[in-house]
Design brief:
Layout (H helix, E strand, L loop, with lengths): L1 E6 L3 H13 L2 E7 L7 H18 L3 E3 L11 H18 L4 E4 L9 H15 L2 E2 L8 H10 L24 H5 L1
Parallel strand pairs: 1-2, 1-4, 2-3, 4-5
Length: 176
Amino acid sequence: MTRLLLHTCCAPCTTYVYKWFKDSEFEVEGFFYNPNIQPAEEYQKRRRCMEYYSALSGLIVTYIENDREHEPGNCYLCYENRFRHAAQFAKSNRFDLFTTTLLVSPFQKHDLIREIGKKIEREEGIGFLYHDLREGYYKGVEMAKRFNLYRQKYCGCFASIPAPAPNGAGPAEAKK
Protein backbone atom coordinates (compact mmCIF):
# COMPACT_ATOMS: atom_id res chain seq x y z
CA MET A 1 0.00 0.00 0.00
CA THR A 2 1.26 3.49 -0.87
CA ARG A 3 2.14 5.63 2.16
CA LEU A 4 0.85 9.18 1.75
CA LEU A 5 1.66 12.12 3.99
CA LEU A 6 -1.27 14.54 4.00
CA HIS A 7 -0.45 18.13 4.88
CA THR A 8 -3.51 19.25 6.85
CA CYS A 9 -4.49 22.91 6.94
CA CYS A 10 -7.54 22.37 9.17
CA ALA A 11 -9.96 19.67 10.23
CA PRO A 12 -12.89 20.68 7.96
CA CYS A 13 -10.72 20.43 4.84
CA THR A 14 -9.27 17.15 6.08
CA THR A 15 -12.61 15.33 6.40
CA TYR A 16 -13.37 14.67 2.74
CA VAL A 17 -9.74 14.53 1.61
CA TYR A 18 -8.77 11.91 4.22
CA LYS A 19 -11.79 9.77 3.35
CA TRP A 20 -11.12 10.06 -0.38
CA PHE A 21 -7.47 8.99 -0.14
CA LYS A 22 -8.25 6.27 2.38
CA ASP A 23 -11.03 4.92 0.14
CA SER A 24 -8.51 5.05 -2.74
CA GLU A 25 -6.38 2.59 -0.76
CA PHE A 26 -3.63 4.90 0.40
CA GLU A 27 -2.13 4.51 3.86
CA VAL A 28 -2.64 8.09 5.04
CA GLU A 29 -1.06 10.03 7.90
CA GLY A 30 -1.54 13.73 8.61
CA PHE A 31 1.01 16.50 9.02
CA PHE A 32 -0.09 19.73 10.70
CA TYR A 33 2.40 22.53 10.02
CA ASN A 34 0.78 25.93 9.50
CA PRO A 35 2.82 28.95 10.60
CA ASN A 36 0.61 31.08 8.34
CA ILE A 37 -2.39 30.87 10.68
CA GLN A 38 -2.80 34.16 12.48
CA PRO A 39 -3.44 35.31 15.13
CA ALA A 40 -2.14 32.78 17.69
CA GLU A 41 -5.64 32.22 19.12
CA GLU A 42 -6.90 31.18 15.68
CA TYR A 43 -3.98 28.78 15.32
CA GLN A 44 -4.85 27.17 18.65
CA LYS A 45 -8.53 26.78 17.68
CA ARG A 46 -7.59 25.05 14.45
CA ARG A 47 -5.03 22.82 16.12
CA ARG A 48 -7.47 21.74 18.86
CA CYS A 49 -10.11 21.04 16.23
CA MET A 50 -7.61 18.95 14.23
CA GLU A 51 -6.74 16.99 17.39
CA TYR A 52 -10.45 16.39 18.01
CA TYR A 53 -11.07 15.22 14.44
CA SER A 54 -7.97 13.05 14.52
CA ALA A 55 -9.28 11.27 17.62
CA LEU A 56 -12.72 10.79 15.99
CA SER A 57 -11.43 9.54 12.65
CA GLY A 58 -8.36 7.57 13.68
CA LEU A 59 -6.11 9.70 11.47
CA ILE A 60 -2.60 9.77 12.90
CA VAL A 61 -1.32 13.36 12.77
CA THR A 62 2.12 14.77 13.48
CA TYR A 63 2.00 18.32 14.81
CA ILE A 64 4.98 20.54 14.11
CA GLU A 65 5.12 23.66 16.22
CA ASN A 66 6.70 26.68 14.68
CA ASP A 67 7.87 30.14 15.53
CA ARG A 68 4.59 31.67 14.27
CA GLU A 69 6.41 33.51 11.51
CA HIS A 70 4.27 34.25 8.50
CA GLU A 71 4.48 35.73 5.07
CA PRO A 72 1.88 38.51 4.91
CA GLY A 73 -0.46 37.74 2.05
CA ASN A 74 2.05 35.89 -0.11
CA CYS A 75 0.44 32.61 -1.19
CA TYR A 76 3.52 31.41 -3.08
CA LEU A 77 5.82 31.66 -0.05
CA CYS A 78 3.16 30.24 2.24
CA TYR A 79 2.52 27.15 0.07
CA GLU A 80 6.25 26.66 -0.52
CA ASN A 81 7.10 26.81 3.18
CA ARG A 82 4.40 24.36 4.26
CA PHE A 83 4.93 21.94 1.37
CA ARG A 84 8.71 21.91 1.83
CA HIS A 85 8.33 20.99 5.50
CA ALA A 86 5.83 18.28 4.55
CA ALA A 87 8.13 16.89 1.83
CA GLN A 88 11.14 16.80 4.13
CA PHE A 89 9.14 15.06 6.85
CA ALA A 90 7.68 12.61 4.32
CA LYS A 91 11.09 11.75 2.90
CA SER A 92 12.77 11.33 6.29
CA ASN A 93 9.90 9.11 7.49
CA ARG A 94 9.82 6.91 4.38
CA PHE A 95 6.51 8.00 2.91
CA ASP A 96 6.04 7.38 -0.81
CA LEU A 97 4.26 10.67 -1.57
CA PHE A 98 3.00 13.87 0.00
CA THR A 99 -0.05 16.00 -0.74
CA THR A 100 -2.25 18.63 0.89
CA THR A 101 -5.83 19.15 2.01
CA LEU A 102 -5.73 22.52 0.24
CA LEU A 103 -6.70 20.57 -2.90
CA VAL A 104 -10.33 20.39 -1.73
CA SER A 105 -10.82 24.14 -1.58
CA PRO A 106 -12.28 26.09 -4.51
CA PHE A 107 -10.75 29.18 -2.86
CA GLN A 108 -7.13 28.01 -3.18
CA LYS A 109 -4.85 28.59 -6.16
CA HIS A 110 -4.67 25.10 -7.67
CA ASP A 111 -2.29 25.94 -10.51
CA LEU A 112 0.12 27.47 -8.02
CA ILE A 113 -0.25 24.52 -5.62
CA ARG A 114 0.56 22.08 -8.42
CA GLU A 115 3.52 24.19 -9.63
CA ILE A 116 5.05 24.48 -6.16
CA GLY A 117 4.34 20.85 -5.29
CA LYS A 118 6.13 19.64 -8.43
CA LYS A 119 9.04 22.04 -7.82
CA ILE A 120 9.48 20.69 -4.30
CA GLU A 121 9.11 17.14 -5.61
CA ARG A 122 12.17 17.73 -7.84
CA GLU A 123 14.17 19.54 -5.17
CA GLU A 124 13.45 17.21 -2.24
CA GLY A 125 13.27 13.92 -4.15
CA ILE A 126 9.82 12.80 -3.00
CA GLY A 127 6.66 12.70 -5.10
CA PHE A 128 3.90 15.27 -4.81
CA LEU A 129 0.43 13.94 -5.52
CA TYR A 130 -1.88 16.46 -7.13
CA HIS A 131 -5.50 15.43 -7.42
CA ASP A 132 -8.25 18.02 -7.85
CA LEU A 133 -10.67 17.29 -5.00
CA ARG A 134 -12.82 20.40 -5.31
CA GLU A 135 -15.82 18.26 -6.25
CA GLY A 136 -15.84 17.11 -2.61
CA TYR A 137 -15.77 20.58 -1.04
CA TYR A 138 -19.47 20.65 -0.07
CA LYS A 139 -19.37 17.03 1.08
CA GLY A 140 -16.52 18.07 3.36
CA VAL A 141 -18.55 21.01 4.66
CA GLU A 142 -21.39 18.62 5.50
CA MET A 143 -18.98 16.19 7.17
CA ALA A 144 -17.52 19.05 9.23
CA LYS A 145 -21.01 20.06 10.35
CA ARG A 146 -21.85 16.46 11.24
CA PHE A 147 -18.67 16.19 13.34
CA ASN A 148 -19.34 19.65 14.84
CA LEU A 149 -15.95 20.95 13.72
CA TYR A 150 -14.88 24.57 14.04
CA ARG A 151 -15.10 26.15 10.58
CA GLN A 152 -12.99 29.26 10.05
CA LYS A 153 -13.88 32.01 7.64
CA TYR A 154 -10.43 32.67 6.17
CA CYS A 155 -7.36 30.87 4.90
CA GLY A 156 -5.07 31.78 7.77
CA CYS A 157 -2.82 34.76 7.16
CA PHE A 158 -3.69 38.29 8.24
CA ALA A 159 -4.24 39.31 4.61
CA SER A 160 -7.01 36.72 4.21
CA ILE A 161 -9.07 37.83 7.22
CA PRO A 162 -12.39 39.16 5.89
CA ALA A 163 -12.90 42.89 6.24
CA PRO A 164 -15.61 43.88 8.72
CA ALA A 165 -18.95 44.85 7.23
CA PRO A 166 -19.68 48.59 6.91
CA ASN A 167 -20.87 50.25 10.12
CA GLY A 168 -20.22 47.06 12.10
CA ALA A 169 -23.19 45.32 10.49
CA GLY A 170 -23.16 41.55 10.27
CA PRO A 171 -22.99 39.81 6.88
CA ALA A 172 -26.79 39.71 6.46
CA GLU A 173 -27.20 43.40 7.23
CA ALA A 174 -24.30 44.38 4.96
CA LYS A 175 -26.01 42.76 1.95
CA LYS A 176 -29.23 44.77 2.37
